[in-house]
Amino acid sequence: MCKLLRIYNQNRKQIWFVILIIIFIIIIIYSLNAVYKKQVEENTSNENTTEQKYEKQSESLVSGTTVPEIYKEDFGNLIDSFLSYCTEHQPEKAYGLLSKDCKEILYPNVQIFKKQYYESKFSDEKKYSFQSWTAGTTYTYIVKIFNNMLATGMGSSDNYIRDYISIVKEDNDYKLNINEFVGKLNLNKEKELNGLSIRVDSSEIYMDYEIANFTIKNNTEKTILLDSQKSTDSMYLINNKELKYDAMGYELSEEDLTINPGEEKQISVKYSSPFNDDIRARKYVFSDIYMDKNDIYYGVNNETIIIDIMEE
After folding, report:
1. Are the C-beta atoms of 45 and 141 separated by less than 8 Å?
2. CA proximity to 212, closest of 131, 149, 141, 286
3. Sequence-ordered strand ranges (E) for the chain
4. Under a CB-based contact definition with an 8 Å cutoff, are residues 286 and 235 in contact?
5. pLDDT per residue over 137-170, tens digit each?
6. Residue 261 carries which DSSP code?
7. Is this prediction's pTM over 0.90?
8. Which of 29, 46, 127, 142 is paired with 36 by a 20 to 30 Å CA distance?
9. Residue 270 in 3-state DSSP?
10. Strand order in the sheet with 139-147
11. 127/129 Cα distance (integer angstroms)
C-alpha cells in the first residue's frame, strides 16, 4: 500500500492529467452521441426501413387525413429516393424523377435543375425529413433540409430549408413536382365578346399562388385593352367556395394587355390564390376591358368577360 502511495505522490500530476483527459474524451463522445441521436430522431427520415412503411410521414399535417396504405411505401420511397440522390450529389438521377410538367415549366434541362434547385439546397452535406401535408385529391409533402451537423460541424435543427413536393401520376408511374409546384391543369375554356376571344388554356398551381395561361384573339379592327390597370381588383378569379382572389396585375405591362387588330397573343396572369386540396378556381374574370383602347380617354363604359371553367 505504501508503495502505491509513493508512486501516486511521485506521479500525481501526470495521473490526474491522464484522468482529466479521459473524462474530457468521455464528455465529448457523450455530447456527440446525444446530438446525433436527437438529429436522427427528430429531423431525418432517410434511415427509415421499408418495414416501417413511412407510417409517421404519411400522417397529414393540414388535412387531418392519412396517405392510403397502398400508397404509403411507394410515395415514401419515391421522395426518399429523390432526396437521397440530392444529398448523395447525384442530381442527374434526381432530375429523372421529376414529372414532365415540372421539367417543362421549371427545369427544362438538368443543367437548370442543378443551378436553380440542387446547388441552392444541397451544396453542403445535408440531411432531411418529410411529412405528408395534404392527402386527398392531391398528395403533397412538406420537406425540411438540414445541415448534416456531424459532417459539417455547423447548423442547428432549428434552421432548415423548406420545400413542398407533390406526387403526380404519369404514364402509369408516379413522378414528383418540386419547389412548391403542385401541378398543372389543362382547361381549354373559351369566351367571346364582340369579336374578342379569351381562352384559358391551362393553370399552374403553386403553394402560394396560381398562374393562368390565356390565349387572347382580337377579331376586330380596333385595338383592345384587356385591363386599364386603374384598379387592383379588376382582374380576379373566383374559386368553388365563392372566394375572390385578385390578379397580380402589376406584373403585367400595358403592352402585355394591349391586343392589336387581328392579333393573337398569349399572356400569363398570376393570382394570389394559395393552394388548398379541395379548392379550385371556378371563374376567371376580366372586368375592365376596353374594346377600343382610345375609349379609356372618353369615359366609355368598359366590358366584362367571365370564363367559367366548370360550366358545361
Report:
1. no
2. 286
3. 126-135, 139-147, 161-170, 173-177, 181-193, 196-206, 210-218, 224-225, 235-239, 244-246, 258-259, 264-271, 281-289, 303-308
4. yes
5. 899 999 999 987 654 444 455 688 999 999 999 9
6. T
7. no
8. 142
9. strand
10. 126-135, 139-147, 161-170, 173-177
11. 7
